[in-house]
Amino acid sequence: MDPSRRSVLGVALFSVALTVPDWPDVVGRMEAVQQGVRTRMGMSDVHTVAAMTEQLSSMDDQFGGRTARPLAAAFLVNTVVPFLRSSGPDDVRKAMMSAASDLCYLTGYMAVDEGLHGLAQRYYLQALELAGASEDHLTFCTTLRGMSVQAVDLGQGPVAMRLADAAAASSPQAGPRMRAFLAGQQAHAAAQIGDRRSALMYLQEAETAMDKAEARGKVFGSYDPASLSYHTSQVRFEMGDVHGAVAAMQESDRLRYGIYRRTRVKERAILAERQLATGHLEAACKTWGLALDDYPAVNSGRIDKRMTDMFHLIRPHIRNHEAQALYERARATVRPELIPA
Predict the structure, then answer these.
(1) Hey, how many other C-beta atoms are within 10 angstroms of the C-beta on 89?
(2) What gap in Å lies between CA 63 and CA 262, rounded to an integer?
(3) Residue 91 and residue 34 share a domain
(4) 212: domain range?
């Protein structure tokens, strides 16, 4: 799965774009491009796509995939695909394909958050094709890792492991932060398939790489100590150490930057589930309550699934004062369709 293979370069850009979801919406605009409304692109157009992708990513972090993905899809269809059809210097066209690849990856990630897994896979495959065409190793391996995250969250451990390994193999010269980003996912996938030795090895590798990365200075918006603590929690949970998983998830929550609201809600819900599993009902109720604080601002299929699970997990404890208060608050807070009859 080497992105330097150039087979996709033989595919016309029009054919590449045809595989983008919701392509029919852009046919008229593509004809306008052919008629000369936009005949040439420059590096400033590439910068526009990259800047917009960054803004969309921030919206996803704060408001969830259901809010951000329709905006990303519209930008992809209305703006990026016409750029791909425009003429321009080879270096600009290559940079535009790279920028488009990054946007396709992000849009696929948003679709995962919505729970639209088939759609996410189509975006991911498109991101891989465009990354390969533009020789963008970073987006190529990032997308493979994203596909591994999707697989592990769906309980498809062997697939997740293959994809995580492919991502690592596609980035042989990764710096320490990128290596931690890749090894953390390898550790989670290995733990899910019961390969304890490899899981611990990859986790140690991620920790060592993170120490090196942090020594070089923190980078906002990338894999960070909170992310590593999350992977540590997942590995411990998969290996049966629920108490250790709770401690690591608490550390992840403590370290996480405040702008990552969607992740904070999702992982607090996971933490609460695990606190309950260790017999700490009131602690779990408190953590679920913190998740509910941010819930109204986030539109996420993954979080809605966690809230549905919360109702079922709390119901057997409804005679407890804390559990009853949480249950009633949740009924008044979450989307009506999630409330059990």
Answers:
(1) 12
(2) 6
(3) yes
(4) 152-259
Contact 209, 224 (CB under 8 A): no
Does the residue 273 lie in any domain? no
For 318-334, what is the mean pLDDT? 96
Q: Which residues of 52-68 are buried (b: 16+ CB within 10 A; e: fewer)?
A: bbeebbebbbbbbbbbb
- Token pair 């593509």 is found at 30
Residues 161 and 120 in one domain: no
Q: Can you give the pTM of this predicted structure? A: 0.86
The answer to whether the beta carbons of residues 199 and 230 sit under 8 Å apart is: no
Single-letter amino acid, residue 251: E
Q: For residue 37, how many other CB atoms are within 10 A of its CB?
A: 11
Residues 6+ apart with CB under 8 A from 199: 187, 188, 190, 191, 235, 238, 239
pLDDT tens sequence across 103-116:
999 999 999 999 99
Question: CB pairs under 8 A, 24+ apart, for 293-296?
Answer: 294/261, 294/264, 294/265, 295/265, 295/333, 295/334, 296/333
Q: 40 forms bridges with which residues in the sheet? A: 87
pLDDT(13) > 90: no
Instruction: Say how many domains are in the chain.
Output: 3
Name the token pair of 252. Answer: 């992840």
Is-contact 109 62, C-beta < 8 A? no
Burial (Cβ within 10 Å: 0-12, 13-18, ≥19) of residue 274: buried
Residue-wise pLDDT tens digits, 255-314: 998 889 999 999 999 999 999 999 999 999 999 999 999 999 999 999 999 999 999 999
Closest by CA to 262, choosing from 212, 308, 220, 296, is 296
Handedness of CA 202, 207, 210, 215 (dihedral sign): negative
